[in-house]
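not sure who needs this but someone in the group chat was asking about Fumarylacetoacetate (FAA) hydrolase from Ancylobacter novellus so here u go. i didnt clean anything up, its just raw.
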Amino acid sequence: MNAPIDNSAYVITPPGIATLPVEGSDKLFPIHRIYCVGRNYAEHAIEMGHDPNKEPPFFFQKNPDNVITNGTFPYPDKSSDVHYEVEMLVVLGKGGRNIPADKALDHVWGYGIGLDMTRRDLQGEAKKLGRPWEVGKAFEDSAPCSALVPASKIGHPNQGKVWLNVNGVQRQVGDLNQMIWKVPEMIEYLSGLFELQAGDVIMSGTPAGVGPIQRGDHMEGGVEGVATLDVKVV
């Protein structure tokens, strides 16, 4: 969702600030950037045709205004093969460069759950041509997300079930302890490539079982001890 801002200083009306709600609060978390780590669960890497033991972490981005929190996902145009990918969200309360792993969790404000919705057919075409993935990953409404929960309330989860059901049937299941690159390692690596900022969101990767959805489908997911998400495909 977007929070309004004063537009009197601009030559055109600026977009609102992209935000995420906070569980139990009327205050909002402002989003700076969204970083997504690819193939961070071994079984998912294998199902996508890759060897999880031979790859360093890699990241792509979604746009802050790709986030939606209203419980619906509009099926996008220009695609007939849209996939779900359930992931834990990690949100930063402070940034920095070259953050060491043993200090990384000090930068985490809280956690949530999100869906990295993917136009798989368009992503596949881009891969074949050696082109960027934005057309398949960073489209409108491609990041349905839950409200956030502060780390001050739940700590820093490093294990717990990650799951997604479609129309009541379990499609994805894994555990946070199966992540190849743990949260501190992701932050350390990312902060060597970018200057991280307060408001950054990291989508931490998805377990195996990704697959297509159709209009009318009902997706329910969760990260144990963190949050749940309920989304209707429209």
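also The chain has a mean pLDDT of 93. if thats useful
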